[in-house]
Design a protein that fits this description.
9 helices; 8 strands; 8-stranded mixed sheet; globular; Rossmann fold; single chain
């Protein structure tokens, strides 16, 4: 059974490559920052585990996709994988984690404040967590898999209710990345102009998931075929780690206990 969807970006579908490289960038950044006992919350298919494993004294990952967890256990026998819904973080003891990463997860969590409290619970004093999530300012349409999205100031305010030490940065892009973004924006607007009743924001998320998946996949395929080698040429190096989070595609939050 294939578990890939446009929301669970494939590493092998060429039309997904720009987003895969964007998501990979967070792990490239984290690779030089993780250490000690590392926990990844929401590991998916393990896009970044290979980058972080040899930097970790121990590595544990949690995800609700049982099929992915089974494959990761076979691929990385030295790591611990937990099949569970979150929060809470089952089997993770208080004050036991030195570094926690959770990329593109918090936007899926109903109780986002409780999620941050769980992060605080499991971190050791002085431990840090790194989270990414889409910057709502740059979102092109409603994503029915997301409970909510944030601006940088909104996420900082939320994190500040739990952590006294918070830093917000972002992942942006160079000219090549932003050319792709602008092409994507124009293409999405051509589709959403027919939504004269604004149903994407008025209908329940459950009713939007199938049309979102179909239209999103068609749109990515169209972008791949429409502009030479732009899609295939974008690499994680084209995404930029920057302090200007307001003008970033993704927010990159670091909190320290």
């Amino acid at each position: 059974m294939a578990i890939y969807a446009t929301e669970i970006t494939s590493e092998t579908d060429p039309s997904d490559s720009p987003l895969h490289q964007r998501l990979l960038k967070a792990y490239v950044i984290a690779r030089d920052l993780v250490g000690g006992n590392v926990l990844e919350v929401g590991c998916g298919e393990g896009r970044g585990i290979g980058l972080m494993l040899d930097k970790s004294a121990s590595f544990t990952a949690i995800d609700k996709i049982g099929e992915a967890i089974s494959k990761l256990r076979a691929a990385y026998p030295s790591a611990i994988f937990i099949d569970a819904f979150i929060p809470p973080f089952k089997s993770i003891e208080d004050n036991s984690i030195d570094t926690l990463v959770s990329f593109q997860v918090i936007e899926h969590i109903d109780d986002d404040l409780g999620f941050l409290k769980e992060i605080h619970r499991v971190l050791r004093p002085g431990g840090k967590a790194m989270l990414t999530t889409p910057n709502r300012t740059y979102t092109l349409s409603r994503n029915p898999w997301h409970v909510r999205e944030y601006t940088g100031s909104e996420l900082l305010a939320l994190a500040g209710k739990v952590f006294s030490n918070c830093r917000m940065q972002g992942i942006g892009g160079n000219e090549k990345v932003m050319t792709y973004y602008e092409q994507n924006k124009k293409s999405v607007r051509r589709i959403t102009r027919f939504d004269v009743l604004d149903l994407q924001h008025r209908l329940p998320a459950a009713l939007l998931k199938i049309p979102y998946e179909i239209l999103n996949r068609l749109n990515r395929k169209k972008l791949q075929s429409g502009d030479g080698n732009l899609v295939s040429s974008i690499r994680h190096e084209d995404y930029l780690f920057q302090d200007d989070y307001e003008n970033a595609l993704d927010l990159f939050l670091t909190v320290t206990k």
